[in-house]
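REQUEST FORM: STRUCTURE PREDICTION
Request ID: SP-0412
Submitted by: Lab K.M.
Chain count: 1
Length (residues): 340
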Amino acid sequence: MICDCACKRPKRTIVIWEGCAPIVTEAIQRFEERWHPYSASSRRYPIVRLIEEVIDPALATYMDTLPGSYANYVPGTGTGLGFSAIIRMVGLEAMERMQRQLLRQFIKTVEHKTTTDENFIATLESLTGLVWDCACKRPKRSSSTKGVNLNAQRKHDFCELCGNQTEFAAFMSTVAGQHINDVELEDRKKLELSHQYCEEHRPKLANGDWNPTYRQAKRSLTQFNIELSRLTHQCANRSKPHAMSGDELIDSYFFQLMLRLTLQSADKAELRNLARRMVNCKLSDTKKKMLVLKQSGFSQTEIGKRILNAKQQPMTRQAVSKALGSIREEFLLGSENFSR
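STATUS: Completed
RESULT:
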């Protein structure tokens, strides 16, 4: 479960997980109180320096209270290098991916979580989120790379319809990493880069025609947001059904689905893409209920009697069979993955 902790400003950006170690929680709060002028691209206010000053000491103190085995899941711990030192070596985005992978490994290795384990997970989730927020944070006053006539203050994050970066975000990442030559730069400057959609979901194609992929995704935007909300809620509390769909069977579906996946709340891109695939393959709530009932041992005839069709009548066994047969393997539950 995540919570927004109180601070002097009316709106927080960095999410601190419930159960995060108090000393790290306090450090993150102080970090955000000071981080306004800092960014990864600022020379005067490099954000890694702020991490070194505020986060490193708190994390080191916290890790000293834990058994040595926990150090294997925090980069730098036990090697004489601080959290910020590893970031300087690999970069913020690589650090976020590294910490996320280590967190997944820890979760896989712990069969029965203790309170210490839960607090450790919440602390790592909070730190992973902080690193990601630092990677995304723009300078207070910023300008694009010389020769790039683009407004770097424009919104650039995920595509509205999936988990890919927007065209503008992808381009700015390339420019920031200097992975673009002059010819490509001139070509890209001629384009109107979208800060709302990725290349796949760009509203219009290069020839001026409407993009059918965009239209299809736009029509299902409401359902996409519903599925994303359910996935996010379930990730935030994996110990019980927590999708908050309002239906017990649907909540149970998301609970069982996430048990076999290693996604965390910080995996924003992956969760958004998963929600998009759910919608694209028409994984309806009715199909989710069928999967839960099948996993519980109900026959197709019994499932049909419990689930009503569009006319509010029991479904036939053939209709249930057809619906189950149309579901993609990645959305099956438990042993169903191997029994189709």
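NOTES: The chain is about 50% helix and 0% strand.
Reviewed by: T.R.
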